[in-house]
Structure formats: C-alpha cells, structure tokens
Amino acid sequence: MTAPHDTVPTPTPPPGPCPDAARTGATPDRSPLPTWLAARLKRDRDGLVAAVVQQHDTREVLMVGWMDDEALRRTLSQGRVTFWSRSRKEYWRKGDTSGHHQYVKAVSIDCDGDALLIEVDQVGAACHTGARTCFLAGGDLGAVQGSRPGT
Ligand SMILES: [Zn+2]
C-alpha cells in the first residue's frame, strides 16, 4: 500500500555519514529507526536511552549503557551491541577493543519507552575492570532487607 504523499520527492540528505547529526536531537522525524519505534523512545535531553544488558541464559544483569537512535538501529540489525559513549562522544561496539563481544539475542523496550533491555550472549567480562558484571565490580551497598508480612 502506497499513500499518495509517498510519491512526493523528498529532499536528498547531505552526502556522507554524519553520526553526530543522527545522535543529537533525534526526533521521530529524523531517526534511522522505524517511525513507530522512534515515536515510542523517550530520550533524555542528550538524546539517549538507558540500556540494561542481561546474559540471556543465566539472567545475570551485566551492565548498563546508553543508546541513541543510531546505536539502537545498529544493535537491532547487526547482532552485536553498540552503545553511545558519553565520555568519548562516539559509538562504541562492545568488544571491539576488549574482545568481550556481546551477541544480541533479544531487545525489548519498557512500558514508557525510556529504557531498553538487551539480552545477550556475553563473551568474558562485561565490565572494563575485568569483572563479569559491572555490579560485581561496584559492590553490594549493604541495604537493609525487607520482608513481606507474615514470613
Ligand atoms: Zn563496569
């Protein structure tokens, strides 16, 4: 099915890749993602969404990273996880330097669109410290435990 407005020529985008343009100020109108998905994402003011990364079989929570629309597009289409690095201001495909690849098994979006769950097969350590997970590396904060009444 082709709507009439689809036949109207659209302006040619500027030549060459411009990852920063894709990253900053992404809106549903200028996103590399399908329209419905771009519309569901609730980005922070930097254009980013939190991505919780989980080992698909053991359910270990491995790490949290940040994605913009382009990082999510790559993650959905390439079988490997790509993040946006806030500190380095560049795309970062997990494992390219460390060898600790994350192979995508499933990607879900949460109810209000401000977080993603990336289920992966993690090779080696997820954390740059060498720990299996970033939360093992960070450590237990010693929270007071609660219990439901009657137990
Ligand atoms: Zn870490």
TrEMBL record:
Mg(2+) binds at D110, D112, D114. GO terms for biological process: L-histidine biosynthetic process. GO terms for molecular function: magnesium ion binding; phosphoribosyl-AMP cyclohydrolase activity; phosphoribosyl-ATP diphosphatase activity; zinc ion binding. It is an enzyme of class 3 (hydrolase). Pathway: Amino-acid biosynthesis; L-histidine biosynthesis; L-histidine from 5-phospho-alpha-D-ribose 1-diphosphate: step 3/9; Amino-acid biosynthesis; L-histidine biosynthesis; L-histidine from 5-phospho-alpha-D-ribose 1-diphosphate: step 2/9. Its EC number is 3.5.4.19. It catalyses: 1-(5-phospho-beta-D-ribosyl)-ATP + H2O = 1-(5-phospho-beta-D-ribosyl)-5'-AMP + diphosphate + H(+); 1-(5-phospho-beta-D-ribosyl)-5'-AMP + H2O = 1-(5-phospho-beta-D-ribosyl)-5-[(5-phospho-beta-D-ribosylamino)methylideneamino]imidazole-4-carboxamide. It is found in: Cytoplasm. Residues 63-135 form the Phosphoribosyl-AMP cyclohydrolase domain. The keyword Aminoacyl-tRNA synthetase does not apply. GO terms for cellular component: cytoplasm. Keywords: Amino-acid biosynthesis, Cytoplasm, Histidine biosynthesis, Hydrolase, Magnesium, Metal-binding, Zinc. HAMAP family: HisI. Catalyzes the hydrolysis of the adenine ring of phosphoribosyl-AMP. NCBIfam families: PRK00051.1. This is Phosphoribosyl-AMP cyclohydrolase.
